[in-house]
Specification:
The protein is built from eight helices and ten strands. It is of the alpha+beta class. The protein has a single domain, classed as 3-Layer(aba) Sandwich (Aminopeptidase), CATH 3.40.630. Helix 6 packs across helix 8. The chain is globular and about 50 Å long.
């Protein structure tokens, strides 16, 4: 089986010494969604980040779950490691997903809050603690435009985004929480639903579950079409990183 993380990838232990920085956004065209997918960071693309935040707030408010957003942290971008956005041909942002991390302890994950008072909270903590030494990103604040003809395909595209962040940094795992009725869309890229009782979060209308991706064995669980897209798009990104050389990204010391 081909290992997704390329040899020579940055050690996840670097997360204790610095913070990964892109010097330029990375982007590629996805004909399946007729949009350009962009990987960037809030400090690098403040206008794009502001559009991401507005889209997330609008989407969550429309569905009556704005309480699930940490609005202050979202607007500042301080805890956002990287984000992925889908930009339509008309320049409009169609969807987005952000990553928080790398997590240094289970208590940094919002999942612990979501399972507060629930019998599965300790299992959530244990799963996080076991994986953190290998690098864990938490995918959060996902949203898509409310257009039924495209939102499913946009979710499918976003479900791949964590792999590119993992490949750039060497982090092995990423995870998310999602309502049971949409979890199957996220599973298409090889995510495995954790064997933890669902939690009624953000309220009793929802049964929220935890889902995990392992960048080193996702091929065994992902839909074949998603595997092909992940490998192809990752190869494009790695070629672009190699072309840009040392200017593409860096690790900055945390002081």
């Amino acid at each position: 089986m081909r290992e997704f993380i390329r040899s020579g990838a940055i050690s996840p232990h670097s997360m204790t010494a610095g913070r990964f920085r892109l010097s330029e956004r990375l982007s590629w065209r996805d004909p399946d969604v007729e949009a350009t997918l962009v990987l960037s960071q809030p400090y690098l693309d403040p206008d794009l980040w502001e559009e991401f935040v507005c889209g997330a707030e609008r989407s969550y408010r429309k569905h009556g779950v704005e309480c699930a957003l940490d609005v202050d942290a979202l607007r500042s971008g301080a805890d956002t490691f990287m984000f992925c956005a889908a930009i339509g041909d008309d320049g409009r942002m169609l969807a987005g997903l952000r990553a928080k991390g790398p997590l240094r302890s289970a208590d940094e994950s919002h999942a612990v809050v979501e399972w507060e008072g629930q019998p599965g909270q300790q299992m959530v903590r244990d799963m996080l603690t076991d994986r953190i030494p290998f690098g864990v990103l938490e995918m959060k604040s996902g949203w898509v435009i409310d257009e039924s003809d495209v939102n499913r395909s946009l979710t499918t595209a976003l479900a791949r985004s964590g792999f590119y962040m993992a490949s750039l940094t060497g982090y092995q795992f990423f995870m998310a929480t999602a309502a049971a009725f949409v979890i199957n869309r996220w599973k298409t890229s090889g995510g495995l639903v954790a064997p933890i009782p669902a939690t009624p979060y953000p309220d009793e209308r929802y049964q929220t579950k935890m889902i995990w991706w392992d960048s080193r064995d996702f091929i065994n669980y992902a839909d074949p079409g998603q595997v092909a897209k992940i490998l192809t798009e990752n190869e494009l990104l790695m070629r672009e990183i190699d072309r840009r050389g040392d200017l593409a990204s860096s690790w900055q010391e945390v002081v």
